[in-house]
């Protein structure tokens, strides 16, 4: 068993535990859907890791190139996007020109991720740019809406304050999965391990932050 | 010569279609979507064959764990999406027809697998296959149906959420395919059972709330 496999297994255990805790805490009537979606994002990420582990165990060799496990990252990004774009953005941003500066500031997150991805891809000599970009496509807008929640004023909504720590973790997850996928598709073990470890720790912290936030926002 | 899967589809479709006219609205809808699921299976078989003919260098294991789950999950979600758009966005109805579509898909797939592997099948095989594949297809489409049920109520959530659930269903399906083609096939058959039980609780709760 190689080192990456051990890291993936540890990351799976952490993320599956976070998912289970999230399910027990939020998958009940009266709990905010925002936190339910966040929990599902953790579930999707851990399912992607599980596929990767099972595939390696079943075939006996490490997988190269595209496999369904990568969809865990895409799915996680889509769930994070659902949470902020689908649930919060309408309340947060009324579309008026007064918030233009905040919106421009929020665009720094996807731009930074794009720079991170392209730098990683160029340095590590990634060949399948298109696959990597398509898989990360929902992660970029997800990071935009995370930063938007962080930079926008709380106004009179107490729940906005309660979800900010969650969004810090979400931003780290977006960056971590970008690094992880860049590492996996370019064969860089260092990037892969760094990305997986950071993402696993962040999903646990995100569920912890969500549990704190959930007490302030229960409807 | 007609393909075996088409023959099996006709064998199932003709009596089920006749049955639909004798049933009440809800039961007829469920049986109709079982039939739709069977048709989707037929369609998926054709599309998978076509894709495999385009990429002949891809081995069966890789194909069944990467391409086939994506094709099948997208196709199974389409009738549910059309139903939600055109007819009703009632959550319980959508979840019912999602499960029916998935199970219909699994019925034809199991019959086809049985017809191609006749010497190796047994009652035990049928039981495992029924629990494993039947529930796996049902649970996956159920999950996607959950996102689709927001089609009219929350459009933003529907678009991102449905795609996210579709990704989850594809990974889940890939894990199942990976396990049943390996030495750990029993784990593959148990996996859907473990996920079906919470689904059953959700559906039962929903029905109880509806009745109240």
Summary, kept brief:
The complex is a heterodimer of chains A (219) and B (212). By secondary structure, chain A is mostly helical.
Indicate the proportion of strand residues of chain B: under 5%
What kind of sheet is the major sheet of chain A? Answer: none
Radius of gyration of chain B: 17 Å
Q: What form of chain B results from the Cα inertia axes?
A: globular
Question: Total helix count of chain A?
Answer: 9
Helix-strand sequence of chain A: HHHHHHHHH
Q: How can the largest sheet of chain B be summarized?
A: none
Mean pLDDT of chain A: 87
Based on secondary structure, the structural category of chain B is mainly alpha
Helix and strand pattern of chain B: HHHHHHH
Instruction: Estimate the helix proportion of chain A, in percent.
Output: over 70%
Number of domains of chain A: 1
Query: CATH first level of chain A: which class?
Result: Mainly Alpha
> Based on the structure, what is the oligomeric state of the protein chains?
heterodimer
Q: Percent helix among the residues of chain B? A: over 70%
Name the largest protein-protein interface in this structure: A-B, 32 and 27 residues
Structure explained in plain terms:
The complex is a heterodimer of chains A (219) and B (212). In chain A, helix 1 (3-26) packs antiparallel against helix 2 (33-59), helix 4 crosses helix 7 (139-151) and helix 7 (139-151) packs antiparallel against helix 8. Chain A is globular, with a radius of gyration of 17 Å. Helix content of chain A is 80%, strand content 0%. Chain A has one domain: Rhopdopsin 7-helix transmembrane proteins, CATH 1.20.1070. The N and C termini of chain A lie far apart (46 Å). Chain A is built from 9 helices and no strands. The model of chain A has no long low-confidence stretch (mean pLDDT 87). Chain A is mostly helical and 219 residues long. Chain B is mainly alpha-helical and 212 residues long. Chain B has one domain. In chain B, 84% of the residues lie in helices and 0% in strands. Chain B has 7 helices and no strands. Chain B has helices spanning 4-20, 25-54, 60-86, 91-116, 123-148, 155-180, 185-211. The termini of chain B are far apart. The mean pLDDT of chain B is 87. The interface between A and B is medium-sized, with 32 and 27 residues.
